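Predict fold of Galactose-1-phosphate uridylyltransferase; 419 aa.
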Amino acid sequence: MEQSQPKFTYYKPGRYAKEHIRISPTTLADGRDFFYIDDDPEYVSGAKTRELHDPRPLTDRFASHLDSEGNEVPYAEPIMRRDPLTGDWIPMAAARMNRPITAGPGASATGNPLAARKPGDPYQDGEVPDIDYDVVVFENRFPSMVRVPGVPDTVSYVDGDGLWEQRPAAGRCEVICFDPNENGLPADLPVSRLRTVVETWAFRTAEISHMEGIEQIFPFENHGAEIGVSLAHPHGQVYCYPFMPPKMETELAHTEAYHDKTGGNLLRDIVQAELAVGTRVVLRNASWVAYVPAAARWPLEVHVAPVRDVLTLDELDDRERWDLAQMYSTLLHRGNAFFDKGDGKGMDLPYIAAWHQAPVRDWRRANYRLNLQFFSFRRAANKIKYLAGSESGMAAWVSDTTPERIAGRFHELGPVDIG
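Predicted 3D structure, encoded as tokens:
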């Protein structure tokens, strides 16, 4: 039976989400948006309700503050400057220097701000008001980009020189916590929970697409201290750019040029070509195909694409969302088994999972196609691929392996067809 749910302007849940997922919106003490995304039947039915009051004595997020000498200091909004040599916009957010770090060298936080509240715990500056949750999503407390009320999105010039454009970094940054277990791994989550995460990606894509000034919505996951993760809790993020990020700009240029030349869709034709050859296809189900791209850069790299032409995550239907959860779970398990340390147990793979979806407004969006780009810096059980002179200095990749070898290792780990 369908349950009464809060109504959102643009997000339209499918049948499964209407019956099995409940979204409860609230705001944190400093005014940031916060959402519980529950799959627990008692919360979905309304038999239980979430704690919507954040008890922390936080001031408004955009309020001024006093420095160590008692002087009033205005909120330091993030800015961005355009590199005149490349055209890239570079956000600059000095306030992020103060964000808590709980993973790796230099860890500074006394508790995990992504964990549920623990009664009696001396650390009570966590972001989740309740003592438990399924999935939550909220605005980042230390964002790289944020729209500040009253600050006009206008261009100025650094030092008054027209070479260097500057604008407010008026985007949006959100955090998605996949599970309350702060010591858990995304690979250990049941497919049903990953299905809730997929729904969260779709929910945020649908709603944020209509926010002022947003040009690109980028859900992603950083996993592992070697990747640079500052908080070890299983979580992902959504960066919402007020400009076209450089990699997306490059991809759009190539997909549009291909369409002008052939009339086809480059991303669709890549998937069809990989299926025709078959050698580099590593996973397949009714709705999705995972393959090692023929020009893979990373020592472990897999791209995941829908069978159907889909522009953005919110366009996926119920079957595609379930099949994606299954595909992602299988990919994480096999990624963890990819490098053998000699004990047959594999390892907790450091990785980045990056969703590339059609831009919000750019006229080239029609010839793009949704895809996930999953990769790891690790090149052996005890070795990391460092981006040295050629990669970092000239963005000219040199691969330490071949795509066929990567795919061959995945083939050793399990069947291609998974349902």
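Helices lie at 15-20, 41-45, 191-208, 246-262, 266-277, 318-337, 389-394, 403-413.
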